[in-house]
């Protein structure tokens, strides 16, 4: 079983940049897709970005052009670079591993989740 730990969250202002990290332990996850999701207070968890085992990337419309997901398999880590941030980007950000190399935007298709890291936007 892989363990995922997110880090890098914090307080941001509109226009700021922030980089989140998702570090895996227990085994390598280079053969699996990894996704980032976020959950704002009172809302359902939503898809943000995903990266396939082969490096293909996918984004929600709300972050396309602003967020970049990448992976460093040597470090067993997936990153999410967030730029031009908005107050609407506030939430707890989770990374998750899908038990296949194909990325997906569906929450239920991911099996292992981290504990989340808080990103709070201020105007």
Short key terms for the protein model shown above:
single chain, globular, 4-stranded antiparallel sheet, 11 strands, mainly beta, 123 residues, 7-stranded mixed sheet
- The helix/strand series, from N terminus to C terminus, equals EEEEEEEEEEE
Q: How much β-strand is present in the residues?
A: over 45%
Number of helices: 0
Query: What's the gyration radius in Å?
Result: 13 Å
User: Count of DSSP E strands?
Assistant: 11
Can you tell me the overall shape?
Answer: globular
* Major sheet summary line: 7 strands, mixed
End-to-end separation: 40 Å
- Structural class, from secondary structure content? mainly beta
Parts with pLDDT < 50 across at least 5 consecutive residues: none
Bin the helical content: under 10%
Report mean pLDDT, rounded to a whole number. 96
